[in-house]
């Protein structure tokens, strides 16, 4: 049994853990980075990057088959080679993973440990069965995993999660996607565009992260035209028949539908990886889900020198938030007991669907009903969007009645990922709707649609 003493032990070498390690070292502490699984991060291996690679292939297929309206005809069939699609996804994914792994390889060997870590007591970790780590402070950065409801577990290897999609050598023919959150919609639409027969089955009427009912209804219509989409399906039975899965569900309209698929892709939420951490063997206060009760400002668990960062804390499961939280947790762990709040950026969330979904600032559902006005634009007649035949979308921007400040937006529409950044920057700079309307808008651009929504808000504020 080896024994190591360190200032900071970081459990998990994902995006949060890596930035915690760098921050702890930059603050002058000694640090040990502990990884139980494969290096490379969830984002690069099975998350952000391979999903965007699959979407890029899907978009290429879509545009190749939808150029006719411009008078551009592809005479002859457009052929999607599933093997080539997946080969590129994996090749490029491996390249991104390679950069992360190279960074880990460059770290001093003495700073890295392989094996799953668990607490033996408040300040001692057991890594695998080989090393005891005595740490003055600990950062829990263990990430999250897809939830697999019991009814799908019995399907064996026919019930899959996002990780499995990116291990495919070829595209299957029929996939049921369970869950209409961001991951379900992104992967569902991408597979549909690549010629897979897809049914996306949500349960509670969700459409990605949207909380504004008008935008959600609009998005539901758009996706229902693009693939088989049932946001309110109740799956009654999932049965394996050979290498197929038979699903029986009640649709939103009350019809009982039976259908057969090659795979059920479960994208029904994620939960923090805390089960194996032995937290019950510490004096940390745990909530009903077994997660340490922690201060969302400093990420500190109670008065203990333990910090929870990234997907592990279950709050903002996004890459840039994981990196920011990791940095703050690493710094706080190194400087404990002198801890400082995480510097939060303006909230921004994007679903890389087509049209894209984006949310900035306060969610519609969290705003006090009388406190704000809603500026609206439809992208259906928006000049540049129509030029490009991408004129599907509806945007709501919210402005505070008292201060005239822009406070949030939810929408589906063209170029949403870019407009989301303009809006997040405006929010962080605390701009009013009037300030934003004084900014330049070129012509003809999709952002002119945003200007229409802001003008609408300004009129309603008058
Ligand atoms: C399909 C998909 C698409 C996504 N797309 C986007 C996107 O477009 N944009 C975006 O911002 N976000 C996206 N995300 C979310 C983003 O990937 C995560 O928020 C981010 O990767 C979380 O980083 P993390 O460091 O918290 O966790 P991870 O990167 O998962 O790191 C946690 C690490 O801890 C290790 N670990 C766990 N338990 C232990 C233990 N006991 N001991 C030692 N090691 C342990 C794990 O092996 C893992 O390597 C996506 C996620 C998925 C699944």
From TrEMBL:
GO MF annotation list: flavin adenine dinucleotide binding; NAD(P)H dehydrogenase (quinone) activity
Ranges of residues in domain FAD/NAD(P)-binding: 7-326
Keyword Iron among UniProt keywords: no
Family, similarity comment: Belongs to the class-I pyridine nucleotide-disulfide oxidoreductase family.
Cofactor: record remark: Binds 1 FAD per subunit.
Cofactor(s) annotated in UniProt: FAD
UniProt-annotated binding residues for FAD: 52, 142-144, 311
Organism whose genome encodes this protein: Caballeronia calidae
Residues of the Pyridine nucleotide-disulphide oxidoreductase dimerisation domain: 350-453
InterPro entries for the chain: FAD/NAD-bd_sf (IPR036188), FAD/NAD-binding_dom (IPR023753), FAD/NAD-linked_Rdtase_dimer_sf (IPR016156), Mn/Fe_SOD_N_sf (IPR036324), Pyr_nuc-diS_OxRdtase (IPR001100), Pyr_nucl-diS_OxRdtase_dimer (IPR004099)
Binding site for NAD(+): 179-186, 269
Active site per UniProt: 443
PANTHER family: MERCURIC REDUCTASE (PTHR43014), PYRIDINE NUCLEOTIDE-DISULFIDE OXIDOREDUCTASE RCLA-RELATED (PTHR43014:SF4)
Disulfide cross-links: 43-48
Keywords: FAD, Flavoprotein, NAD, Nucleotide-binding
NCBIfam families: PRK06292.1-1
Protein's recorded name: Dihydrolipoamide dehydrogenase
């Amino acid at each position: 049994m080896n024994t190591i003493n360190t200032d900071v032990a970081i459990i998990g070498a994902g995006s949060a853990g890596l930035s915690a390690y760098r921050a702890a070292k930059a603050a002058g502490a000694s640090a040990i980075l502990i990884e139980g699984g494969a290096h490379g991060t969830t984002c690069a291996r099975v998350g952000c990057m391979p999903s965007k690679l699959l979407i890029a292939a899907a978009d290429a297929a879509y545009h190749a088959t939808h150029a006719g309206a411009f008078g551009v005809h592809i005479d002859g069939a457009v052929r999607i080679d599933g093997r080539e699609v997946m080969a590129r996804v994996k090749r490029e994914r491996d390249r991104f993973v390679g950069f992360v792994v190279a960074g880990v390889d460059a770290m001093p060997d003495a700073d890295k440990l392989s094996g799953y870590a668990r607490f033996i007591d408040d300040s001692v970790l057991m890594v695998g069965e080989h090393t005891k780590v005595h740490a003055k402070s600990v950062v829990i950065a263990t990430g999250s995993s897809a939830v697999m409801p019991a009814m799908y577990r019995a399907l064996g290897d026919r019930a899959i999660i996002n990780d499995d999609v990116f291990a495919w050598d070829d595209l299957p023919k029929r996939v049921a996607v369970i869950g209409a959150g961001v991951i379900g919609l992104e992967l569902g639409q991408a597979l549909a565009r690549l010629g897979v027969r897809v049914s996306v089955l949500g349960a509670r009427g969700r459409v990605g992260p949207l909380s504004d009912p008008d935008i959600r209804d609009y998005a539901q219509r758009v996706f229902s035209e693009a693939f088989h989409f049932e946001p309110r399906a109740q799956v009654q039975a999932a049965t394996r028949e050979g290498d197929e899965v038979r699903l029986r569900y009640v649709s939103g309209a009350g019809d009982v539908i039976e259908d057969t698929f090659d795979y059920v892709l479960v994208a029904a939420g994620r939960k923090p990886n805390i089960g194996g951490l032995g937290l019950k063997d510490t004096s940390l206060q745990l909530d009903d889900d077994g997660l340490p009760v922690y201060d969302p400002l400093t990420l500190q668990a109670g008065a203990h020198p333990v910090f929870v960062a990234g997907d592990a804390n279950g709050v903002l499961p996004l890459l840039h938030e994981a990196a920011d939280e990791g940095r703050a947790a690493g710094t706080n762990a190194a400087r404990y007991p002198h801890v400082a709040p995480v510097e939060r950026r303006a909230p921004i969330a994007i679903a890389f669907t087509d049209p894209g979904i984006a949310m900035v600032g306060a969610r519609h559902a969290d705003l006090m009903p009388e406190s704000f006005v809603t500026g609206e634009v439809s992208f259906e007649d928006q000049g540049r969007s129509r030029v490009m035949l991408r004129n599907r979308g509806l945007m709501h921007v919210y402005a505070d009645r008292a201060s005239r400040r822009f406070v949030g937006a939810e929408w589906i529409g063209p170029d949403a990922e870019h407009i989301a950044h303009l809006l997040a920057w405006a929010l962080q700079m605390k701009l009013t709707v009037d300030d934003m309307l004084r900014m330049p808008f070129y012509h003809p651009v999709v952002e002119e649609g945003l200007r229409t929504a802001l003008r609408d808000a300004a009129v309603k504020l008058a």
